[in-house]
Amino acid sequence: MKIYQIDCSARKEGSTSRMLAKKILDKVKKDDDEVIYRDLDDEMLFISGLTESGMKIPENEQTDEHKKMFELSDKLVSELKESDVIIISVPIYNFGPPATLKAWADLAARVKLTFKYGDDGRRKGLLEDKQVYLVITSGGTKIQGEEDFLTPWLIHMLNFFGIKKIDIVAADQMALDYEKSIKNAEEKIKELFKD
Ligand SMILES: Cc1cc2nc3c(=O)[nH]c(=O)nc-3n(C[C@H](O)[C@H](O)[C@H](O)COP(=O)(O)O)c2cc1C
Which of 55, 97, 188, 189 lies at 20 to 30 Å from 88 by C-alpha? Predict the structure, then answer.
């Protein structure tokens, strides 16, 4: 089995979302599983310099910047496609996703690769049959409350890719009661992996 772990906190040391994602990885991973790890805080690009309405530019018109963008996009798409289980850890930044996660989604959404349009014109996700674990952390925003625009967006994005099996481990409102928040998250992990 291939496990794809994506972290994106802009904080490397002392990051709660990274710590909880690691706990999930330790629960999921069996000895012969392969882990593909991606830290969006180490490398990310924004879609830029497009010459058409979609994410395509004829190869002979591509600048070096375009080539870099497609190279990263191709890599992200293949990492997603080849994984069986995906763990995404993400803190809420200004009520939404960190810019790196939004940029990741922009690069990962590729027609005919991660989604397509059927003969009936309907969109269809091409990444079915994957299990996703989301770790979502926040300082004061209640997860899935009215100020949380990250969680509904991320679930929608994953559904758009065809992914329906999504479990959420939330450590929210850590600034209000850190101990309680972590306890709730750890209990959720225990509940998800009880055998
Ligand atoms: C740029 C920035 C914006 C933030 N915006 C919010 C926010 O809108 N709501 C909130 O509850 N916490 C906000 N926080 C706090 C983080 O969500 C919280 O510290 C984070 O979940 C901790 O995750 P980490 O320890 O993995 O970095 C923000 C933090 C940063 C750095």
Answer: 55
